[in-house]
Amino acid sequence: MEEKRNNDEFEYTVDQFADLQVLRYRVPGFENLTLRQKILVYYLSQAALEGRDILFDQNGKYNLRIRRLLEVIYIDYPGNRDTDEFRAFEVYLKRIWFSNGIYHHYACDKLVPGFSEGYLKSLVISVGTDRLPLKQGETLEEMCGKLFPVIFDSSVMPKRVNQADGEDLVVTSAANYYEGVTQREAENFYAALKLQGGDRPVMYGMNSRLVKSGSEIKEEVWKEGGMYGAAIKKIIGWLEKAETVAENDSLRKVIRLLVEFYRTGDLKIFDEYSIEWLKETGSQVDFVNGFIESYGDPLGMKASWESIVNFKDQEATRRTAIISANAQWFEDHSPVDSRFKKEEVKGVSAKVITAAMLGGDLYPSTAIGINLPNSNWIRSVHGSKSVTIGNLIDAYNKAAHGNGFREEFVYGEEEKLRLEKYADLTDCLHTDLHECVGHGSGKLLPGVDPDALKAYGSTIEEARADLFGLYYLPDNRLVELGLTPDGEAYKAEYYSYMMNGLMTQLVRIEPGCNVEEAHMRNRQLIARWVLENGSSDKVVELVKREGKTYVRINDYSRLRRLFGELLAEIQRIKSEGDFEAARRLVERYGVKVDAELHQEVLVRYKALHLAPYKGFVNPVYTAVTDNDGNITDVAVDYTEGYAEQMLRYSRDYSNLW
Ligand code: ZN
């Protein structure tokens, strides 16, 4: 894409603390939208912010109270702020904002405060009791007695999502999706529902909390008038305004169905909504708002609330349109057993979008690509809508330029030059292939339960999509299609993928911990599997030089063949619902960390003073109105700070209490 604007003035980094870096993103092209489109973005952006509290509560039932308590102190504390303890307090609060709760957004472990219980107590006492988030009739002492163990005691609710093989994943996970039920009870509850589902089952359980009271197990549904009803009501209010300025009938229908779903909680309506949303490709502005991804539930059913508002990036969409137009060719030529291939790959719509607002589980930490809906039957009958988020990828790249990372970890000059030359392009291209054709490829054999892989399902699915992309990157077809400039480019992505999967992604893991998150498990699974299976011919090696470990790739074309072999096996596992094989693969290659290598990588990384995780603050949109209250323009501002934005959101969108 041609970049006419001079970006030098734009400050991409906003804040840095703990293991986090907060960036800012631009919204290029917003000024070229019509007034009506700008207003639509504005209304949808408001709806994207109203659900923030839902996610906090989903991530742990004490999160909202703890956040409120700390925010009151942060605003009101009259004492000395220029101390190590207060600075540690501030970092803790900033981390909670970033994680939407007290658990690390990625590792899921409880955040460890860098100050003492006694210090927090002194802060609590220093502010007015009337400002504290006390429950009816509760004293300050009682509140502290309730919340402090949750904050400080490492044995109380230690993990948001526990995936440890063999434990009761529901009981041992602190996420607020189940209350009083065991894993077995929850699985039985939903197994019984699924029996009634037929071949087009709704996503049972995705919009509710499962609760046992007495001997009865029932769902508390997230809808207007139900659980989270106050926030949902606000969301509906903005969606109804958005409907009045929607660009076409099809988008209006999408919005109406979403509102109806929020009103009723009826999952059949959610499926209808998903299909309409999927088919709606004519509108310049698009959005997601709802209960979408299930990574936060150890059983992979309950969906966390998220939102993104975006509009098309016309130029960059050309690239994914080419991939999409060739989807059938990719399906036909993949190394997968023909029994698991789709005869007809349908509806892989592909576009590059510009994010205008991020909310819920997409904020501040966000995805760079989206592929929805998640319903298996809708995907197989209607396909899926797939996007990469151009302006966020651009912000990551710009913020990372020249930070010393490659100099430290990449093996030699040849690899570095190749990364310099191709990596921005091939990284995007791999994401495009992953999203546009990877997830959409393949099929389940008849009768296979889409959730058969249970806790391993997400990892296997991500591995499948990654491998599909990796397998095709070197293909001459990509050169013919003008997607890669030459037959060398793919090596940049192969190198950075292997380096990341074998080594550098470990910077995101605490010493002594295992790999937990599905995408990270998938990357390590792939990288370790090819390392081991190509070891007799040294296709890929870990080599030592002056005490430092490096990844060296000796045979790129053999590496491609290994990716193909693993893709075939992973697709077989998915298609047949082979739980045992999924478990073995993920546990053997994806989970365990080489402690010595981990330690080395952490030390080398630490010396670079970089933050392993990144997230974004949103721009601020202000509606400019005339004397009659009509919106005459929507202004965008990029100057809001991190704490400033979080406090404003907590003040203006505090819907659950
Ligand atoms: Zn994916």
Topology (elements, then pairings):
Elements: E1 13-17, E2 20-24, H1 35-50, H2 52-58, H3 63-76, H4 84-99, H5 117-126, H6 140-152, E3 178-179, H7 183-195, E4 208-213, E5 216-221, H8 229-244, H9 249-264, H10 267-279, E6 285-293, E7 304-312, H11 314-325, H12 327-333, E8 348-360, E9 369-372, H13 376-382, E10 384-389, H14 390-400, H15 405-409, H16 413-438, H17 457-472, H18 476-480, H19 490-502, H20 518-533, E11 540-545, E12 548-553, H21 556-576, H22 579-591, H23 595-606, E13 613-617, E14 620-625, E15 631-637, H24 642-652
Parallel strand pairs: 2-13, 3-4, 8-10
Antiparallel strand pairs: 1-2, 4-5, 6-7, 7-8, 9-10, 11-12, 14-15
Helix pairs in contact: 1-8, 3-4, 5-6, 8-9, 9-10, 16-17, 16-19, 17-20, 17-21, 19-20, 20-21, 20-22
Bound molecules: zinc ion.
Zinc ion binds at residues 371, 434, 439, 462, 465.
